[in-house]
Amino acid sequence: xxxxxxxxxxxxxxxxxxxxxxxxxxxxxxxxxxxxxxxxxxxxxxxxxxxxxxxxxxxxxxxxxxxxxxxxxxxxxxxxxxxxxxxxxxxxxxxxxxxxxxxxxxxxxxxxxxxxxxxxxxxxxxxxxxxxxxxxxxxxxxxxxxxxxxxxxxxxxxxxxxxxxxxxxxxxxxxxxxxxxxxxxxxxxxxxxxxxxxxxxxxxxxxxxxxxxxxxxxxxxxxxxxxxxxxxxxxxxxxxxxxxxxxxxxxxxxxxxxxxxxxxxxxxxxxxxxxxxxxxxxxxxxxxxxxxxxxxxxxxxxxxxxxxxxxxxxxxxxxxxxxxxxxxxxxxxxxxxxxxxxxxxxxxxxxxxxxxxxxxxxxxxxxxxxxxxxxxx
Length: 377
Known about the structure:
The chain is built from 14 helices and 13 strands. It is an alpha/beta fold and 377 residues long. It has 2 domains: 5-195 and 363-374, Rossmann fold, CATH 3.40.50; 207-361, 3-Layer(aba) Sandwich (Rossmann fold), CATH 3.40.50.2000. A 7-stranded parallel sheet has the order 3-2-1-4-5-6-7, sandwiched between helices. One of its GO terms (molecular function) is UDP-glycosyltransferase activity.
């Protein structure tokens, strides 16, 4: 067997790194070599992968803040990315975020000499490196949006980086991986369909996580970004409503301090960091912000979901969930007891959630895609 070297180049943030981990593990399990290039690198390193920090010493939050101050009209996080304005937002901001990773990623790639580059959709350094080295590039989808258009918009705006490295066009050989369940999108499959196999990090689980409670358990998360920008209080109405419901609510909020929510009712547990893929099998529903990872992890678990979108692709994800009938969407301040009761008792929601969970089980696994990726060499 020929050993193939695959360089994963991802945008910073768990929502971009985590969806690629299952494929990286599948490649390594098949005997191939994997290297990850991402800003910071801790998240991929904790998954047991060798990592190059592609932006050493750079504060990614500061990069976003500077871009926001310089481009206030384009940097509007509340923008729905499934629009022309949204695509401009993605192109402008993630070209900047991609640009800080280009030089280190190019240097690492020239030393390590990958045979294939797999990159997240919003990381323009991936296709740039693949084009410079003349190797195939594979876009690893992370959700439901038009990710090909986003990749092209970002690449187009990376004028200085492309000129510096002598890259004039996208890689000659380009493929893509589509993790969106076919029944949830009204477009053709982009490239290779793949079953979404959640990777939500590891950890020692509290004993209660594996136990199915006597009353319904509702998992609640805002992902890993929103809690850093003061969005935790968007759950205030949900916590107030929970007080009078016969259900258990688990706030999986990572490192976020839950104190802005006030004194929690007895049936609301602040659980810190709990991998969703471990929590959802004993949960009856998920309430979340609409991040692609949370949405797809709930779909894989077959549980109904209530989406409270805050911005970016979250509006699109919320609409997709509601349209397919496996969940509901609401503004955070409009959550009430009737909505939560419907989430927990509507058999139509649970039936649709089960249908889509079965649908994705039938899709090719990350292991099934290994020969396709290595076959590009």
